Amino acid sequence: MSRAANLDNIAPDDAVPPASPPPHSLPPKKKKKVHAPSIPPEIPNPPLPPSHSANLRFRQKIYELIKGKTASPLSAFLARPKVFTFQAREDSEEIILVLRRHWFTNLHWIVTAILMSLAPAFLQYFPILDFFPANYQFIFILFWYIITFAIAFEHFLSWYFNVFIITEERVVDIDMYNLLYTKFSEAKLSMIQDVTATQGGVSQTVLNYGTVLIQTASEIPVIKIERIPNPHLVVQILQQMRAEEEQEALDGRLQ
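Below the sequence we write its predicted structure tokens.
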């Protein structure tokens, strides 16, 4: 049986020859798949709980109240000190405010120390030591200056270390009566029941210092801080700290 030349007439059992590639043609190149870098979906920051936001608002209000106040270690109104600390302070406990007596209360011993320092200069007008030998006169004058320095230094230490401290957890009252006797009192902010400020007299009104009285439910029922600067501002700060502490207590009950 003759085979047809036409493909349409190819018998089913005939082998079909492969198609020859066109001349001068190259095999097609395989395309490399380029994988785009996967970008993780943005996860929005979860909003703060209402209670946490409230605590931040209380603290921000406190910072605004003390904004612009001095941070000098020798200040009577020391806001958020960086180097000041006390013995019973916890590592993470932030100090909000350190208070000392107003500078005007130091005027009496400063003037006394100055007058005592100038007193030996008047001995030439009042020769009360002339009947002593010169060596004894020198010893007497040296001893006088030592006494003057000791009096002034003791008053300075008493002013510097008699402090009232407000932290984020409590209030601390440190009273230094002399170099050998110091009294330490504290109360949690949650134990504070009432805070009042009083000012009396011309000097306290003009120079803005006075007394802050804190009533507590702790072992020490009353903490009295006398002759501190900005007493009404101190009351506002304590009220904000109490509000923050009450909010934290409320959060604990809700949890």
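The chain has one domain: 57-80+93-254.
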